[in-house]
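User: Just a sanity check before I run the rest of the batch. Below are the structure tokens for the first item. I only need the designed sequence back.
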């Protein structure tokens, strides 16, 4: 796998999945711009880990729900790096800003989800493209099951927002293809050190037990490094012919059938 990029921007790169992506790219010598919303200390800690891997970069505060702050973010990238080879759209609002069931959610929370995802991606990609040489890479982090199913009722706003984000990935992939800029999406399964940590502890334990018991065939939750690996694949020279795609990095979770009891689906229970 060959990564020739020099500069990357990872929004929401201070912790969790964003940090895992930043560190994986830094392993390839790529300098990282780490944007964060509130936790400056976490962003600086990530930057120190980037530097420990032999790369460099900077941190920058930005609220991606505010188009003016997105423009300011890319102005800083231009001033610091001059060019941008990789843009990873990972940031989202804190769970309290959008987490409400479909029948009671207020428009403010619905708008907060949409603004942090689809609108932010629209504004950011157009800004990123101006800094990118031909052959650049754009990757959006999504959660595809939230747009396909309806059972997790408080996820309704983010599910709709991520679906809109995935649609934009396809449109931008076509628009930027003449320049060799690829636009793809990665959909993580359940990942340690992610949104999982913000849920109530009993819910977290139920999710862990559910996936360890076989709902994820690999019988573990993902790690931020797992998602970093998937992003790095899309950023490689060899992936230059892949664009407009959504890849699940979920340990096989999406292969399981909710209509069939889990015990029947576990491989060790199948007839010889």
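Assistant: Here's the designed sequence for the first item:
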């Amino acid at each position: 796998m060959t990564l020739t990029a020099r500069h990357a921007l990872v929004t929401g790169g201070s912790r969790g999945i964003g940090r895992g992506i930043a560190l994986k790219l830094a392993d390839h010598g790529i300098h990282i711009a780490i944007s964060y919303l509130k936790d400056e200390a976490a962003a600086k800690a990530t930057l120190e880990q980037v530097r420990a891997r032999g790369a460099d970069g900077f941190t920058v505060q930005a609220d991606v729900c505010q188009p003016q702050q997105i423009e300011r973010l890319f102005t800083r990238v231009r001033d610091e790096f001059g060019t941008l080879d990789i843009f990873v759209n990972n940031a989202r609002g804190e769970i309290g800003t959008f987490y409400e069931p479909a029948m009671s959610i207020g428009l403010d929370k619905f708008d907060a989800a949409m603004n942090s995802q689809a609108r932010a991606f629209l504004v950011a990609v157009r800004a990123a493209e101006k800094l990118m040489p031909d052959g650049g890479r754009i990757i959006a982090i999504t959660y595809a099951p939230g747009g396909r199913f309806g059972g997790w009722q408080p996820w309704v706003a983010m599910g709709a927002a991520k679906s809109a984000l995935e649609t934009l990935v396809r449109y931008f992939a076509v628009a930027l293809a003449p320049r060799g800029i690829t636009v793809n999406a990665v959909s993580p399964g359940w990942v340690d050190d992610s949104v999982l940590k913000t849920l109530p502890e009993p819910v977290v334990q139920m999710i862990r037990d559910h996936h360890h018991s076989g709902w994820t065939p690999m019988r573990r939750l993902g790690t931020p490094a797992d998602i970093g690996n998937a992003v790095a694949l899309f950023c490689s020279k060899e992936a230059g012919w892949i664009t407009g795609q959504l890849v699940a990095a979920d340990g096989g979770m999406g292969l399981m059938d909710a209509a069939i009891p889990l015990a029947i689906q576990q491989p060790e229970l199948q007839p010889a």
